[in-house]
Write a structure and sequence with these properties.
This protein is an alpha/beta fold. The protein is built from 10 helices and 9 strands. It has a single domain (38-305), classed as 3-Layer(aba) Sandwich (Rossmann fold). A 7-stranded mixed beta sheet has the order 3-2-1-4-5-9-8, with helices on both faces.
Amino acid sequence: MQTGARELDRALRDDWYDGTYFGDHAPAPAAGPLGYDQYTRASSNADVAAYLLWRTFPAAQVLEVGCAFGFVVEALRELGVDAEGVDVSQYALDHAAPGARGHVQYANLRYRLPFRDGAFELVAALETLEHLPPEAVPHALTELRRVTRGHVIATIPSFGPNEHGPGGWLNAKIPERRLEHYQALGDGYTGPVPFDDLLRDATGQPIEGHLTVASFGWWTARFAEAGLVRCGDVERALHPQLARFGLTKYWNLYVFRIPDVGAPAIDVRDPAELRAVEDRWGLDARIADPEDVARVREVLGERCFDGVPLNAAG
């Protein structure tokens, strides 16, 4: 029954994550109704994501859930990692990046992922889980836990305080007219925001397909219920790197481990290897966002950027 449901799901017309979502049919410079004005390896920051996964986790087998065109999968494979990807968009999979072809396939987190238990050392869900409705989140996180034998890393648009780095906000997630109401609820409000209060695009659909808008506390509790332990020290070590690449305000970071596995070591690669990859992908030329740097320094302290090269941001 589960297999039949997956096949029917895949066969039905994809009104959410078709070419329009990924910018193929959007008149420049406007974005498509749900998604992007363009979606490329560069605009998706896939090289940065792959670089940070590679430098932080000594993982030989990696799964990216919500891989879209497989840009991160392609980049990881260029680094010698056995990376695989899954996505719910058949359109994206049909247009997969050359280096990801044969290594991406259809899967839906509402069902069982097509992998055995503990198949991967690292599972990544980057800007993916917020696309599920709240009631589907517990099963999805249980699946992430099931297929990893080590760690899970996620970036999820979140709001409220974050004990391991910069917090998040509700701006651009709910209508401006409702901001005052939610701000008055204070940090005790964890969400998720009711469907009727989600910010909409011109077609009336939730912006970028984001269906679960919740706090750091809410997401952390759901991961804990799935049997995953948050790795705060790893997150704190990664935040200066995110700021270095101008991504602090866009990527709300979570790192988890299964209970019987330790936290990953930071910077597991040789410095010469790091420099070579940064040079190859032009990462050493990325400009840090001063606002990102200031936010990370405010939370983690002045010395958090020691040893982190910052271009034109100080």
